[in-house]
Amino acid sequence: MSEAPQERLDAPLLRLLGVMVLGGMMSYLDATIVNVGIDTLVGKFQTTLATIGWVSTGYLLAVAVAIPITGWTIDRFGARRMWFLGLSLFLLGSVLCSFAWNAGSLIGFRVLQGLGGGMVDPIMMTVVARAAGPNRMGRVMGLISMPITLGPVLGPIIGGLILDNLTWQWMFLVNVPVALAAILVAIKYVPKDESAAKTTPIDLLGIALLCPGFAALVYALSQAGVVGFGSARVLVSLGAGVVLFAGYIRHALRTKLTPLLDIRLFASRGFTASVTTMTLLGGALFSLLFVLPLYYQQARGHSVLEAGLLLMPLGLGTLIGMPIAGNLADKLGAKRLVPAGAALIAIGSLMYTQADSGTSQMLLTAFQVLVGFGMGLVGAPTMGAVYRTVPMEQAATATGAVFILNQLGASLGIAIVALILQSGSVDGKPTATAFANAFWWSFAAAIVVLVAGFLLPGKPEPAPATSPVEAVDEDVSANVSDHA
Hints:
The protein is mostly helical. The protein folds into three domains: 183 residues, Growth Hormone, Chain: A; 54 residues; 223 residues, Growth Hormone, Chain: A. Helix content is 78%, strand content 1%. The protein contains 19 helices and two strands. Helix 4 packs antiparallel against helix 5, helix 6 runs antiparallel to helix 14 and helix 10 runs antiparallel to helix 11.
């Protein structure tokens, strides 16, 4: 039985997916590619680890500022225009980073790069969601979600290869050919914006509350892994972020303007469950990407490059799982797939809590593939469920909510495992017990995702043979014919 046109992954949609993935992959790679070069940058610029840490923190904060306003800019100026702007800022920031002459200039250029990266990813999701429609959402998200999960996994591997063979500048210059290619193909394949752009005035008070509130929370969580949650600057930043977020929620529920992030979306149980799942998935994924390289280096004696390469099974499992899950999501629904994927993540994490120096690397690799496959089963169906629970005209603001909370989840996950490892260290080196406790966090996050998965939407309803408008037109035509 052939698929209906509205359910088929046709050539124009697949081309659009390819263009979006090409642009979106860069920012996810860049989020982790620099992490393996932190020690190199400390030596190059003759500065402290705390200062160079801002190369990563500054990027994250810029992303945190850009994400909330991207939804409004899409509606106001159009997705195509903002896509080119985001790619151009990312490209310019990458080039300037390679010319940095000291730590301060590098941090400043990374902020510019982060502003572009923070725009690119929500635009990618919004454009694809609108083009796919509800009947193709699962399969499309199975494809588009690959850069979200694979990018951070591949980042440390590519970073390690670059630093082994090239100068540090290539950690940034590697983005240039990809960004140029993404811009060139986007000129041809990204659909033109509608001529009638929305003229809704921007919610300035919302920006003043949400953007710094989000940035304050990201900063607090990024610093908590270094100095602990009891530090004064962490507590002050957390307090400021919570107050600003609370102020934004009150404002968003009362304003007559279109809010940057519509809090009313959370009235939908399915949307809330979907966003919660994506938040915890971000926490589980980025905490594993943080702790696994350290585990392989410090507990099992591998080099930096070897540790990066040993992350490949996680990416392989995800690469296999996401398209399978995307295809099944349109047939079975997220409610069945997500709990199954979460169970696999929990089983794999449990294995690492029990591992010691004598545990076979083959066994660890097998369970790492299992975790990656589980993440694939969770990520694609959940992203598809997000867009099935909101009207398509709210896709941009729904995307903003997903990325904001996913970023917070990632920051929280890293902060928690960093604090666990720090508190369980002896002479600056985490003990085997500390690593086991860090993996228990991933296990706990997976269990919560498993429970939340049962609240997600089930199998999507089949689309009607004709739209309501077409049906009305047919009835009118029939009546005209009867009276002729």
